[in-house]
From TrEMBL:
Gene3D superfamilies: P-loop containing nucleotide triphosphate hydrolases. It comes from the Bacteria. It comes from Lactobacillus helveticus CIRM-BIA 953. InterPro entries: Depp_CoAkinase, P-loop_NTPase, Zeta_toxin_domain. Its EC number is 2.7.1.176. Keywords: ATP-binding, Nucleotide-binding, Toxin-antitoxin system. Belongs to the zeta toxin family. This is UDP-N-acetylglucosamine kinase. Residues 5-45 form the Zeta toxin domain. It catalyses: UDP-N-acetyl-alpha-D-glucosamine + ATP = UDP-N-acetyl-alpha-D-glucosamine 3'-phosphate + ADP + H(+). Pfam families: Zeta_toxin (PF06414). GO terms for biological process: coenzyme A biosynthetic process.
Amino acid sequence: MGKLEKPVIIGIAGGSGSGKTTIAREIANNINEHDRIMIMSQDSYY
């Protein structure tokens, strides 16, 4: 991680029970382990 990189923000929207958390976890699980990832649920936002 020598050079600074711009952050990437991915927003996932949808109704209750539509799989937002599931897809967010799948994305996080498939990202390089050296990258920093934060999942912020709507409940944490409010």
